[in-house]
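Troubleshooting entry. The earlier prediction with fructose -6-phosphate gave an output that would not parse, so I re-checked the input for stray whitespace and re-submitted. Clean input:
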Amino acid sequence: MSNDGRFAVVHNGIIENYLELRRELIKDGYIFQSETDTETIVHLLELYYDGDIKAAVMKTAARLEGSYALGIVCTDTPDALYVVREASPLILGVGVGENYFASDVTALVSHTKNVIYLEDGEFAKLTPDSITVCDCAGREVKKPISRVTWSVEAAEKGGYEHFMLKEIMEQPAAVKAALAPRIHEGRVQLDGFELGEEELRGISKIIITACGSAYYAGCSGRYAIERLCRVPVQVELASELRPMVDEHTLVLVISQSGETADTIAALKECKARGAKVIGIVNVVGSTIAKLADFTLYTFAGPEIAVATTKGYTTQLTVLYLFALYMAEKLGRIDAESYTTLVKELQHLPRKLQQTIDMNWQIPKLVSRYASHSLFFIGRNTDYAVALEGALKMKEISYLHAESYAAGELKHGTIALIEENQPVIAVCCNEALMDKTLSNIVEVKARGAKVLALSCKGNKKIVSQADDVIFIPRVETVFSAALAVVPLQLLAYYAAKEKGCDIDKPKNLAKSVTVE
Ligand code: F6R
């Protein structure tokens, strides 16, 4: 709140030059109650206010560097809310006799499905009966009202104890929603992706960039694309991307929220260097969806739990569709393999349901394997799954979990293995089975207890591991989408046993809108 008590703000984002502003304001006599960057905003509003709130907000916004979605109230106009955004999501909800603002559309769906997406630099005044939007020059602009298709039920727990469990269970339906509109008469069609065959042939490499789980989805996607299309794929953390890209590079930017600041920065960088960018995004109207040249939506529906589950599996699904689409367009796949793989993709929702049904015993394994620090190991596609499994475990159960490429253990990490060390071995890749089995033998010989994850019917693994969890048999290229599910459940039940706040783990936010 401002010193004169006139203004109060809520802020999502980060003000990068706040120390400089704070020093200036303190010199001018303003008293700070906190160490937050947000507090500088409210004092600037007081400084610039001379009876015209819009002018004060515009002048304040002009001083701020960084990212912000601001909600402002002023005691002089108690029936109005003022909002402004820059590099941080802000959505207006249009109601009857009431209007709203939020950073995320999921917060609005139980109140209204009519929304206005604000652009960077735009300012709006909301009263119960009106919404006025102005551009950064203060000129009034007419904004279209979009209709959100997500249902209210989808944004509620529907009888489940946590959103995360509900979202794990929704994966068969979510993957079906991602697949169904894109497979017609046995062929993959990607509406929204309009590069001609000539242009596709001109692509010399593909870069996948994202953060967190979306990055791990990219790691799995890489194997699928390289195997089916025989185009080199580089997967880069968005926060580390120093792109060697040009107009012959195709960039896949993956983001559930479409608002992750690092991913947006990477996207802009790649576009500036002439690359064509495809966004693989869940939230319609989000920044990445708008900035990308083409957008392939994942159609997962609202994902509320901070730890992503159906967001991740639908990202994988879109990557698989993309791999098959490209492989066919480039003539890199024979007709028979294409038909088989498309069919197999169509079976994924059913197999996901089987995976969930087969893994009812997971809660029983928790006390044995999720007791202290865990290792997740695997090779190739299984390694990509191990990465995601370890992240899920860390973020919701707060147990220390690391993932290693199984073949790397003997290059150092195996020194950490001691009596009773839990090792989760992902072993779904038939071609690499024997190699991973030798790694299981190595860690067991040093005292580890091994929980293996493999495809049904794998007898060898039963004789080597202490416990085995199975998924249905599936083409290796798509196995990550099934293999991740038991690991999501393991993390969920480990967190539940520890009494953690599963849907809102500490120190984490659903969309990370600061770099
Ligand atoms: C982990 C998780 C995060 C996100 C990451 C990227 O469960 O949810 O690691 O995957 O913050 O978020 P999006 O996909 O919204 O860009």
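This one parsed fine. The domain at 152-346 is CATH 3.40.50.10490 (Rossmann fold).
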